[in-house]
Amino acid sequence: MIVFDLSCENKHRFEGWFASNEDFERQLNDRSLTCPLCGNGKVVRLPHASYVNTGSRERPDGTRKLIDHVIETTEDVGAAFPEEARKIHYREAPERHIRGTASPREVEALQDEGIEVVALPIPAHRMGKAH
Ligand SMILES: [Zn+2]
Asked: Rounded CA gap, 105 and 48, in Å?
């Protein structure tokens, strides 16, 4: 299974799970792919987002839920994050969601290259556990 970040014409963002890239293309062409929030059929794929841990302190509940979600759905690549995010962006590595650590300067460099990086305050003890 692969997960794509999708968006409808009304800018609702949601995740779509597909057996393969071909499966995604087929559903898109069939117009069987619709927004779960408004039913809009003009669905587009968003640039890939990777998650980086900035080591900030924990935040209240909303963020913690997102962190749980990220930890469940991403692969931990640790300090190799900047390198791995680049490889995925330039299609040198299999496309997938990753998380890891990077310095603010590295994050800035990735963003300059058009790589979408989401900074999250993932507590250190949560890194490297669940995959
Ligand atoms: Zn929608």
From this structure: 20
pTM for the full predicted model: 0.52
Spacing, Cα 35 to ligand 1 middle (Å): 5
Per-residue pLDDT 10s for the chain (131 aa) are: 677 888 999 989 888 888 888 888 899 888 889 998 999 989 988 876 566 666 555 555 566 677 788 888 889 999 999 999 999 989 899 888 899 988 888 888 998 998 888 877 777 677 655 44
Using the mean position of ligand 1's atoms as its centre, give its distance from the Cα of residue 116 in Å: 22
Q: Which of 17, 74, 77, 7 is nearest to 42 (CA)?
A: 7
